[in-house]
């Protein structure tokens, strides 16, 4: 799907005044707890404004049952015209069934492109986007590559998928696959289960690591600095999200193109408002590996 130019959107709204004032519910269940959620919301808001859509930001569901309740409450309270959803794993059994029964259009945005096997309208990043970063580390000569995740996020779908990409690339290159390195990602330091020294000692076993989010990369980077682990001399690092943090620390990171994801999702929802009978579509927005000094041997 090609993103519409602003002139085309203006003409579309002019010819279809019924689009103005449509209320769009935002439901994000599993988006990381860093700045990715507001970044996506901001991108959606900018695009929705072109259509004069009204965004309704809901609560954040913790499981499929609360997801269903939030969607029902939003629909009852605000008379939602359509939803944009970062879905839970059991979305199709609960919220998805409800939305289809109520004939309410919705778009799923997610990291994992085959979780619902193309049953719904989806805008997502490639299933194997993480492979770009792992392949790059291999090409830079890394032989022992670790995978870093957070203790609170090890059971999320997108982290599991990233680990599978990590595993597959290493196997293709006849390199050892390692169990994930879980580091504390709690805001309260008193909840941490491992000391910084324990984490540093484990990291020293590797010549490269991939972190499941930029937020985790920041936590890991501080521990490396405190333990005198030099980046990239002693350790290559790559991450995902390409936030301001990775830019400031000069860390190689995957850009998932959230602005394009948001624009595509809004455009697709607008087309469904005008043509409710169109077939379900799945759009893949390509990721880009932004290579910086953290992953390059001097």
Give a written overview of the molecule:
With 298 residues, the chain is α/β, with parallel strands linked by helices. It is 39% helix and 17% strand. It has 10 helices and 12 strands. It has helices at 6-15, 36-51, 64-78, 95-101, 130-139, 157-172, 196-203, 214-226, 244-248, 258-274; strands at 23-28, 54-57, 82-86, 106-110, 122-124, 145-150, 181-183, 208-211, 236-240, 252-255, 282-284, 288-290. The strands form 2 sheets. It has a 6-stranded parallel sheet with strand order 2-1-3-4-5-11, sandwiched between helices. Strands 7-6-8-9-10-12 form a 6-stranded mixed sheet, with helices on both faces. Helix 8 links the parallel strand 8 and strand 9 (236-240). Helix 2 (36-51) crosses helix 10 (258-274) and helix 5 packs parallel to helix 6 (157-172). It is elongated. It starts with 5 loop residues before the first helix and ends in an 8-residue tail after the last strand.
Indicate the topology.
Layout: H1 6-15, E1 23-28, H2 36-51, E2 54-57, H3 64-78, E3 82-86, H4 95-101, E4 106-110, E5 122-124, H5 130-139, E6 145-150, H6 157-172, E7 181-183, H7 196-203, E8 208-211, H8 214-226, E9 236-240, H9 244-248, E10 252-255, H10 258-274, E11 282-284, E12 288-290
Parallel strand pairs: 1-2, 1-3, 3-4, 4-5, 5-11, 6-7, 6-8, 8-9, 9-10
Antiparallel strand pairs: 10-12
Helix pairs in contact: 2-10, 5-6
């Amino acid at each position: 799907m090609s993103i519409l130019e602003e002139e085309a959107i203006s003409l579309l709204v002019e010819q279809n005044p019924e689009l103005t004032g449509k209320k769009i519910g935002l439901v994000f269940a599993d988006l990381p707890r860093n700045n990715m959620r507001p970044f996506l919301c901001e991108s959606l808001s900018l695009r929705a404004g072109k259509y004069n859509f009204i965004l309704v930001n809901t609560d954040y569901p913790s499981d499929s049952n609360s997801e269903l309740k939030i969607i029902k409450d939003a629909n009852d309270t605000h008379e939602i015209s359509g939803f944009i959803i970062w879905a839970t794993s059991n979305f199709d059994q609960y919220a998805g069934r409800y939305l289809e029964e109520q004939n309410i259009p919705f778009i799923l945005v997610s990291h994992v492109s085959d979780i619902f096997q193309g049953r719904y309208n989806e805008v997502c990043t490639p299933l194997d986007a993480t492979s770009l970063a792992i392949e790059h580390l291999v090409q830079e000569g890394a032989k022992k590559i670790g995978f870093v995740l957070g203790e609170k996020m090890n059971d999320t779908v997108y982290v599991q998928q990233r680990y599978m990409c990590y595993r597959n690339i290493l196997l293709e290159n006849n390199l050892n696959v390692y169990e994930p390195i879980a580091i504390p990602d709690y805001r309260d330091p008193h909840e941490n289960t491992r000391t910084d020294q324990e984490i540093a000692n484990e990291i020293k076993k590797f010549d490269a690591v991939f972190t499941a989010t930029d937020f985790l990369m920041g936590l890991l980077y501080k521990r490396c600095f405190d333990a005198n682990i030099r980046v990239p001399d002693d350790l290559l690092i790559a991450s995902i999200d390409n936030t301001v943090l990775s830019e400031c620390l000069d860390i190689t990171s995957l850009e998932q193109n959230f602005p394009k994801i948001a624009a595509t999702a809004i455009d697709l929802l607008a087309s469904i408002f005008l043509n409710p009978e169109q077939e379900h579509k799945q759009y893949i927005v390509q990721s880009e590996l932004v290579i910086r000094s953290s992953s390059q041997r001097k």
